[in-house]
Amino acid sequence: MADVHLPRSLVALFPGAPRRLAATGATVAEVIADLDAQVPGIRNRLLDAGPVIRTHINVFVAGERATLTTPVPSDAVVHVVPAVSGG
Amino acid sequence: MAKRVALLVGTRKGLFVLDGDADRDDWAVRGPMCEGWPIHDAILDPASGAIFAGGGSNWYGPAVWRSDDLGGTWTHSSEGLTYGDDGEKIATIWSLATGPGDAMYAGVEPAGLFRSADRGATWAHVEGLTKHPSRPEWQPGNGGLILHSIVPSPTDAERVWVGISSVGAFETTDGGSSWETRNVGVRAGFMPEGQQYPDFGQCVHKLVMAADGGEHLYQQNHCGVYRSSDGGRQWEEITAGLPSEFGFPMGAHPRDPKTAWVIPLTSPEDGRLMPEGHAAVWRTHDGGDTWIRSDDGLPTHDAYVGVLREAMAVDRLDPAGVYFGTSTGQLYGSRDEGHTWRLIADNLPAIWSVEAAVVD
User: Fold this and answer.
1) Based on the structure, what is the number of domains in chain A?
2) Residue A39 and residue A37: Cα distance in Å, rounded?
């Protein structure tokens, strides 16, 4: 099970969702699919048409920036981080 | 219970709800809602009593928000708001509307129309519009290629008009399967001489329906103000008497089909601002034959403000209230159909949209 850390701005969109949860999957795409099963709708917030990870969202697996096909070891720590931008 | 007005104000930094008292005199501001997402349009759905707000986050994409308690709590959905994994990415929602029956519509960027039959929980692409033969030649306006005006017939669920910048107006009479352009008589003054009345390519800024709910439409265009008495098949320019042909919003009276309001702005080359820094709303009582300037209560100097296409609203009380918000965060209102005005709220974020919802 990956240990997934989600940003406050994301979980705020899903009342009751935790900042940190366990998810299964061999790749980032599979982990996000499991996240969506636990928090319905979260996939649409993280992925754009393609599918690809949204332009201003970064996913890190064990500290390395990942794509949807990046492998996720069973004990990996996964961070979802929105880009620092705005005004 | 007495009717009161709740103003739904979409801004660059979230939705705000302004609760009016029974006299439309005092207003209490609530917000920001929708997690501070840019909100381009918000409506009160008469069937469900819910507020729907459409917009998009730079990080998390487009969504339609729903509140069943007038803004206290919110959910959101974008399920089905996609052109498919092989299609263009949808940046944001620009407009929302409800039609007769169970239909709800969302207009998006890049321009397209989506329909929901379950009050915004899931959406389906109205492919007929995207398949219009003109689609490969659609060109964006300064604000992008956006579908911003949705005008469902109040009586015929199969009939809808839309406005797209800078493509023009379209109508479907078969529930969205097929669409026809509705731009005859509308000038595209930015095109070369001899090419200024094309089938499409006009820069419609706002499309509204007159109160009789039939064939009478108005539009504020990049190049003038127009009316149609036949559902947009033929348009007649009614700009004469206004200080500028340019402007974004337009409002129609809830009962009198010949009364409407516009806010003329300086040309794009001159900044799209209130002319001479003197704020004014112009209204007609004869379908656009003549226009009356109204500035009582508005700033008469140094008011270099703009008003965007969705940022004017008319309530359905009697007399009707008229409201507009500026792109610099001021919200003005009139409770006497635009004769006198007052500042309702200052210092809001940049205002994208204003809707006047009548609630019990």
Assistant:
1) 1
2) 6
Residue from the list A15, A44, A83 with its beta carbon closest to the beta carbon of B59: A83
The string of DSSP codes covering B337-358 is TTSS-EEEE-SPSPEEEEEEEE
Q: Which residue on chain B is closest to A82 by alpha carbon?
A: B59
**CATH code where residue A41 lies:** 3.10.20.30
How many other CB atoms sit within 10 Å of the CB of residue B255?
11
Domain contains A84: no
Nearest to B225 by CA among B258, B249, B201: B249
Pick the closest to residue B247 from B264, B224, B223, B270 (CA basis): B264
The predicted structure's pLDDT at residue B360: 82
B106 within 8 A of B96, measured Cβ to Cβ: yes
Determine which of B59, B69, B73, B88 to mutate to test the interface with A (most A C-beta atoms within 10 Å): B59
Task: Give the 3-state secondary structure of residue B265.
Answer: coil
Does the structure show a pLDDT above 90 at B98?
A: yes
- How do residues B22-57 score in pLDDT, each as one tens digit? 999 999 999 999 999 999 999 999 999 999 999 999
How many other CB atoms are found less than 10 A from the CB of residue B286? Answer: 11
Nearest to B160 by CA among B207, B123, B205: B207
| Beta-carbon separation of B77 and A41 below 8 A | yes
Does residue A53 lie in a domain region?
A: yes
Which domains does chain B possess? 4-359 (2.130.10.10)
Q: How confident is the model at residue B336 (pLDDT cuts 50, 70, 90)?
A: very high
* pLDDT for the residue numbered A87: 61
Task: Look up the domain containing A9 and give its range.
Answer: 2-69
What is the DSSP secondary-structure string of B93-160?
EEEEEE-STT-EEEEEETTEEEEESSTTSS-EE-HHHHTSTTGGG---BTTBSEEEEEEE-SS-TT-E
The number of CA neighbours under 13 Å toward the Cβ of B314 is 25
ipTM value for the complex: 0.95
> Does residue A13 lie within any of the structural domains?
yes
In whole angstroms, how large is the CA radius of gyration of chain B?
19
Beta partners for residue B62, in sequence order: B56
How many interface pairs between A and B have CB atoms less than 8 angstroms apart?
Answer: 47
- Pick B61's closest partner by Cβ from A48, A83, A85: A48
**Closest Cα in chain A, distance from residue B82 (Å):** 7
